Amino acid sequence: MIKTRVVYLCMAILLLLFVVLYAVLPNVGIETKNTEFSYENIVFNENKVTTVDIEIAEEDWADMLENATDKELKQANITVNGKRIESVAIRTKGSSSLNSVVSSDSDRYSLKIDFDYYDDTQSLYGLKKLNLNNNFSDTTLMREYISYELMEQMGLPTPAHSYMYVTVNGEDRGLFLGVEAVDETFLANNYGSNNGFLFKPDGIGSDLKYISDDIADYTGIGLKTNEGNVDQSKFIDMLKAINNGGDIEKYIDVDEMLRYFAMNTALVSLDSYQGTMKHNYYLYEDNGVFSIIPWDYNMSFGGFGVGGFGGGDRMGGNNQVPANANIKTPEDAKTNEQSDKPDMEFPNNVVQQQQGGQPNGNRNQGGFNMAMGMSGDLMSDSAINFSVTTPVSGITLEDRPLLNALLSNEEYRTKYEDYLEEVATNYLTEENIQSITKKLAVLLTTYVEADPTKFSTTVQFLEAIEGGNSLPEFAKQRSASILKQLSGELVVEASTSQGNMGMPNANDNGDMNGNPMPDGFDPSQLPEDFDPSQAPQFNQDGNMQGKRPNGGPMGMPNQGNEQLNQATVIDKNTVLTAIASLAILLIALFAVFKFKRRGR
Fold this sequence. Notes:
Blueprint: H1 4-24, H2 39-42, E1 50-56, H3 58-66, E2 74-80, E3 83-93, H4 96-102, E4 110-114, E5 129-133, H5 143-153, E6 161-168, E7 171-180, H6 184-191, E8 197-199, H7 235-244, H8 254-266, E9 281-286, E10 289-294, E11 327-328, E12 364-365, E13 368-369, H9 381-384, H10 401-407, H11 410-427, H12 430-450, H13 458-463, H14 471-487, E14 491-492, E15 537-538, E16 544-545, H15 572-597
Parallel strand pairs: 1-6
Antiparallel strand pairs: 1-2, 2-3, 3-4, 4-5, 5-7, 6-7, 8-9, 9-10, 11-14, 12-13, 15-16
Helix pairs in contact: 1-15, 8-11, 11-14, 12-14
């Protein structure tokens, strides 16, 4: 017969095992979380600046910079926050922005890193591809980041994103925005499946006008996945529905697209489907239904210029409000006729810039500038009062059948306007944007100051944080304009002008003296887990000194510490195991209690 003390001993052992399982294993370096998509918290920690150290053969790096437009893949080793991944592929990225940087004196190119190019089993905590965006055309360095934040707040599937400080062979390259690639990994993480069809439209067919029943005629739809089964796609059926008045709910996620277009319109993001370039968006078809995925927002907040410019679409339209436009009341509003203008190609030679990222005395050249709309006048009337009723630029609403099909339906338009009101009152508000910019000011200022390749100055970066020419002020005035347009108090007269595309001359060198924090900054507004101690330190000469925030010496890759800055996260399987163990323990204790009562 089993003695009571033996039973108690067994119970004590079970209790000890439970404690070990629940409290010890997550802290001994054993990954208890399913790391399939753990890159979202580890790589894209928005409260820290991720360090990305690139090791590449000097001749390969020199060739990549010399022949940037070739976008040739080179082999490199990458260390991200101390975790080293060997034999990855790296190349330059971009199109018009890449050509513009090539035409300047700068070599600050955006980069794409492919972790599984040479080994398809390799990833960075589940991440297969990483984009390092150079913040081209954005003196604030925040437009893209904030736009993605607002898209997330609006409930849209959005690429993971955070700031990253990049070195190449031990030399600083500067502050970039890291953005998750929209690929099979993104689809599986956000939609639960990547078996559908992912499109990145850019070119013939990217306006989503119906051409023919042959999908081969749509050379610009950019199918990225499932190419071998394209004949099973409902792409042509979807085009017919939105162009010919069919049942669009059968083919598109109407609610999601209304939220997307409401936010995109509020952000005045015109280097997009709503502008002349008709690109910078993804479509994902899952079981015959199309969703839209936001992409590329360095020219949001009116940065592209209302009216825009690009190839293939007629200039003009009936929504643009130039800086000198007359904003009229409903009583005296009139409709302007559309004017025809010749097609325009994006100019390659747009600016010359000095080495080290400091601006020239005159940044305008031939009527264009390297920023392609990067203007000191963030508060131009053309952007603030961009039409929400006809939210296209440089073209007519009929030229964009997807948007036209949505806004031509009274029920959908009402819902679109409801979402616009929600954006203006909850998301694109002065308070919300200011909370983001002030957090970024603390996080990024020293990195911006140290950046040897930056396009603009630290002063310009800080101007965007608060004040009369800041992103919060833009949000305040833009949201007020949206609400006035929705109520009918403000009617935006049509215009065929391109709006404000210029940029004033810059004559400061961006040198910072003393504390560069903006006036009125309140550190208490930062999140509890925000860590300002990671920011690099500077000596009196303004040079970065000491150690990199994540522990390694400045300019040298971190070695060995592969779990650095990695939060301990326990997944649902571990939780279920712990619950099951606890249940077994309780049952066993109950059995002991019953055993003792029976006197055995």
